[in-house]
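Regression check, zinc ion case 124:
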Amino acid sequence: MPHSNRDLGRAVRELQEHRPGKKYTAVRAELEDWLDGREETPLEAVAIMTDPANQTLCEKCGWTNGMACPECSGCGCNDHTCTGWRHREYMHPDDLAELEVAEAECPECGGDTRSGYDCHCGDL
Ligand SMILES: [Zn+2]
Ligand SMILES: [Zn+2]
Ligand SMILES: [Zn+2]
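Current build output:
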């Protein structure tokens, strides 16, 4: 959807207030970059980009403040020390699969205790 230049100009000036010291053209480039391939209008984009909940919490895992774990207040890097549900929700599917396998491991035979897998210790 093409945006009117007036909307874009207004949005850039608004975003510029959150990017002190940045030139209009640089802020405009940042906004246009963000909008590329998305449906939001420029003003909606600025609202999302400047929402405190969307500010990056950790550069390493890319979590934002809004994603912070309610249990440890940490980011995705705390996956292995905190068992909060938030970590699972945002965990990489491969890591989650690995974690589920580790949790399903039977202490008796070391097999996978999920039904249909290789542990039959619980079977009669
Ligand atoms: Zn946590
Ligand atoms: Zn992190
Ligand atoms: Zn077993």
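Comparison notes: Residues 5-50 form one domain. The radius of gyration is 22 Å. No diff flagged against the previous build.
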